[in-house]
Amino acid sequence: MSVNKEIKRITTHTLQSMKHDGEKIAMLTSYDFSMATIVDDAGMDIILVGDSASNVMAGHETTLPITLDQMIYHAASVVRAAKRALIVVDLPFGSYQGNSKEALNSAIRIMKEAGAHAVKLEGGIEVRESVERIITAGIPVMGHLGLTPQSIYKFGTYTVRAKEEAEAQKLKDDALILQEAGCFGVVLEKIPAKLAEEVTKSLRIPTIGIGAGPSCDGQVLVINDMLGLTKGFKPRFLRQYLDLYQEINGAVKSYVNDVKTQSFPNEKEQY
Ligand code: KIV
Predict the structure, then answer these.
(1) Is any ligand 1 atom within 6 A of the Cβ of residue 104?
(2) Per-10-residue mean pLDDT, the chain, length 271
(3) CA angle centred on 225, ends 107 and 38, rounded to 5°
(4) Does residue 23 have an active-site annotation?
(5) Domain spans of the chain?
(6) Calpha distance 193→178 (Å, rounded)
(7) For the chain, what is the total number of helices (H) and then of strands (E)?
(8) Per CATH, is 3-240 categorized as 3.20.20.60?
(9) With a 6 A CB cut-off, is 210 part of the ligand 1 pocket?
(10) How far is the CA of 269 from the centre of ligand 1 (A)?
């Protein structure tokens, strides 16, 4: 399907219509101006400034260390680049779990200082009060269920979630709670495809899957992973569109060689 580039700016209402019309929603992460410019120009519906920046930008093992200030820095760079996509920014670990007032203040900072369009946070019933308070302030909120990386030390592993009935039931309940609290969409990460299909059918709001099968209303990937920049990271759900690690490594080796052999710069590359 060709991308409709006539649309001026994707809004949460556009996403609702896309679900209604059966048009799949494309979402991808970005963390900086250059990449977000390319992603937006390619027709992305949603750019997620994910707290995966903690892993792929800063080199941390988990998403936990990234701060609100750092998220705002990344988000502001992405906002300056994107003309069409809806920009959703993750509330980082520690910026909303304390209480709903703290959650609202963090969301306000992201909207005011970065110019984002919406925030995303992880969890179900535990964050309902915060979701409601943020939305009451006029800030759109996206939920995130299933594998929620900010709770990695509780889970102990990054394997598929909600395979057992009790956890699957909690996820279904949480999805409805988030919808009733006013979320405009919900990310479903690493859960069985059948469960994601059931949740997607039960909700009026769009679901965006990552490792959650084809029935979700949209898909999201981490851009560094799909471009092959994250060396050695190839989970089953990931489709890798390029091998940029090899491409860039090759280019850099050529540059090193050109400098060492004095073939760069040549006569045309000087003043
Ligand atoms: O931080 C992130 O990149 C995310 C996606 C994996 C959904 O939350």
Answers:
(1) no
(2) 68 98 98 98 98 98 98 98 98 98 98 98 98 98 98 96 98 98 98 98 98 98 97 95 98 98 98 98
(3) 70
(4) no
(5) 3-240, 243-271
(6) 20
(7) 11, 8
(8) yes
(9) yes
(10) 42
